[in-house]
Task: structure prediction
Amino acid sequence: MLVQNKGNHAYTANGLTLNPGTNKVDEKEFEQFLTHPLMKHLNDKGEFTYDSDKARPSAKDAIAMIEDAFDIDMLEALKAEEDRKTVLDAIDKRIDELKNPQK
Result:
């Protein structure tokens, strides 16, 4: 599942670290992460945005998360799983931006 950490800091709890931006994580690990009192509080305040694997995010939401991603390997993995053209185009654009930051 994709989890967007909207904060300016990485958060670690129960063996999972969420870096700022979009992270691809296991749903069960994220559920464990949220059992930590601070992470639950941050989640309740809207610090994390996510959709479960069972509920595929809309193309608009997926593109917003992709635009906030910094991990090229994660983006490549998402590309292999995605079939929507607009989302695939967003992934390609973000990968290009990360590989060629001077554009």
In short: The mean pLDDT is 92. DSSP finds five helices and five strands in the chain. The first helix runs from residue 27 to 33. The helical segments are 27-33, 37-44, 59-67, 72-81, 85-99.
